Request: fold
Amino acid sequence: MKVVLIVLDSVGIGIAPDQKDYDDVGAATLPHIGAAAGGLKLPTLQKLGLGNIPAVCPQPLAIPGVDPSPSPLASFGAMQPVSQGKDTITGHWEIGGLELNPGFALFPHNFPSFPKELTDEFERRTGRGILGNKAASGTAIIDELGPEHIRTGKWIVYTSADSVFQLCAHEEVIPIAEQYRGCEIARELCDPFRVGRVIARPFIGKPGAFTRTENRRDYAFNPSEPTILERLHDAGKCVLAVGKIEDIFAHRGMTESNHTGNNHTSQKQVEDYFARAGDAFIFANFIDFDMNFGHRRDPHGYAAALMQTDEWLAGFLPRMTPGDVLILTADHGNDPTFRGNDHTREVVPLIVYRPGRPAQNLGLRHGYFDIAQSLAALFGISPIPRGVSFA
Reply:
């Protein structure tokens, strides 16, 4: 048996009841992208039951272009987050079986965002000063401070609405190895403050034409208890990670991983693992939706990426045999039609495809960790502390 879990990064499906707590009232990623694009063409996902999901959401919003299927091929539902936060780590860890309450530390948006004792020690240990120290868009702060960074060799440091310490540098000014070492230092210093992620954000180019590279790395806070990855790995199961999964879970509980940098290479790696692995759990993150289109508020680019993934799924599904399982979900929303450029608090889709098995309405699940509980059931290991299995 192969179980493939794909997180469509930021592909939220509708309004969460607690959006007011996050200043996100009205955000709904898929419905609003569909409206902005004049309707989405996602025939494979529609056949699987994507259009059936809005009916089970707390506040149903149809996905323009994706109608309900009268006979969906997959079981379908929606998942409501219970952890405090709407960032990558929080969403993925909840999928992995954890609950974060209270959530990670957040920082002020205005200068100075980070505590002086943190930045002073970071400068001392890395031997370089810092620029920024505020909340910003990653592309905007490169344009703003990139020229000064090139002149001075200082780090660009910034945060966002998430619990992040982001470290940005030109690859010809601060070599990649030194950037990663800087992140390791920052990770150590950020642990007492409960910062969710330290992120390396390398870039290249000249003033007016800077471009971020795919050498991004995430350095996660260590989970306080075993996730489903560790539980499966400790039980002797093969756990294969694709994309930034290895960083999100602090490189714990994996048999093998490949840190792919975009949807295309992640899809190829899923195919490779699926072809050569025996019984295995394959856990992948498709990053482009969030990184390239959600944060950059590009609904048309987001729609095109969704259609590309739909086409890929059309070719992947026939590779599956009875006994295999494909789970599609998301970690949070990132409505590109919403104000700002941050993640949005939303319910997320749940699609569970098992060739030859009848589809079921899985309803609204309270907690992403139902996926982890289901994985425990599918692989025959002991139940995890929270969640209800849909397997």
Q: What stands out?
A: Residues 331 and 347 are 9 Å apart (CA to CA).
